[in-house]
Amino acid sequence: MALINCKDVSFAYEGNPVVSGLNFTVNEGDYLCIVGENGSGKSTLIKGLLNLKQPMSGEIIMGNGLLANEIGYLPQQTAVQRDFPASAYEIVLSGRLSQRGIRPFYSKADKASAKENMEMLDIQNLSKRCYRELSGGQQQRVLLARALCATQKLLLLDEPVAGLDPIVTQDLYKQIYRINKESGITIIMVSHDIHSAVKYASHILHLKNEQVFFGETEGYVKSGAGVGFLGSEDNK
Predict the structure, then answer these.
(1) Looking at residues 11-18, what average pLDDT do you find?
(2) Cys-Cys with 9: which of 27, 58, 74, 190 at CB 3.0–4.6 Å?
(3) Residues 128-168: pLDDT tens digits?
(4) Number of neighbours of residue 92 by Cβ within 10 angstroms
(5) Are 214 and 204 in contact (CB under 8 A)?
């Protein structure tokens, strides 16, 4: 069943087109990786999927009753976020805020969700640690657990491994892949790491201010766009 259907979607910034001609569908259980060079429109599209930016034209249709507050989102980290003075558990638990409505306190279900997701990502031992004292990889696991607390349907990840060392990067990619396979949560991830994208993702959306390719990963690596982009990344 389709979770997201983009039909002839275009986005603009200050009246100037940023990315156009988007026609793709994301089904339940897909793992879609959005690739492309800097400035190609990847983060703009993510904002559109989060309903933070309205299309200049076309429409984005959410299926299976998907609501904006049912999307788990892991944005690019900033220096201010890395220095946030709260415990890891408090950060993870805050992912339930969108589900609470007008209730003033966290419920037993909220707390159970936080505990379950911390255990899933093997960070329960960090529960009482101050977030800003954690390593970059530990912080990203905490933020991923937080995003999971917000959803059982869809995770949007914007460069989740930026700034992490290679070993931690591969570990986080494996965790995301496991979440997709074992929990059935649909993944949409922006990444500059094209080789990991084709290793883990089921589908690829390649942007260059327009839709260059959309389809299954196997088809992408054989396509002109895929061969060219994989080759250009190797030569950097």
Answers:
(1) 87
(2) 58
(3) 999 999 999 999 999 999 999 999 899 999 999 888 899 99
(4) 30
(5) yes
Q: Which helix (H) or strand (E) holds 33?
A: strand 31-35
- The alpha carbon torsion through 109, 110, 113, 114 (nearest 10 deg) reads -150
Strand order in the sheet with 203-207: 71-74, 154-158, 186-190, 31-35, 203-207, 211-216
Collapse the DSSP code of 87 into the 3-class scheme (helix H, G, I; strand E, B; otherwise coil) and give the result. Answer: strand
Is pLDDT above 60 for 93? yes
Distance from first CA to last CA of the chain, Å, rounded?
39
Helices 166-178 and 136-149: angle between axes, nearest 10 degrees: 20
Q: Amino acid identity of 225?
A: A
CA dihedral defined by 59, 60, 66, 71, rounded to 10 degrees?
-140
**Rounded distance, CA 228 to CA 87, Å?**
45
Q: Where are the beta strands (DSSP E) in 69-123?
A: 71-74
Contact call for residues 187 and 157 (beta carbons, < 8 A): yes
Q: Are 184 and 108 in contact (CB under 8 A)?
A: no
**Distance, CA of 35 to CA of 71 (rounded, Å):** 21
Would you say 175 and 145 are in contact if contact means Cβ atoms under 8 Å apart?
no
Q: 233 pLDDT band (50/70/90 cuts)?
A: low
Read off the pLDDT band of 200 (50, 70, 90): very high
Dihedral angle sign, alpha carbons of residues 184, 187, 193, 197:
positive
Between vectors from CA 156 to CA 96 and to CA 213, what angle results, nearest 5°?
165
* Range 47-58 average pLDDT: 92
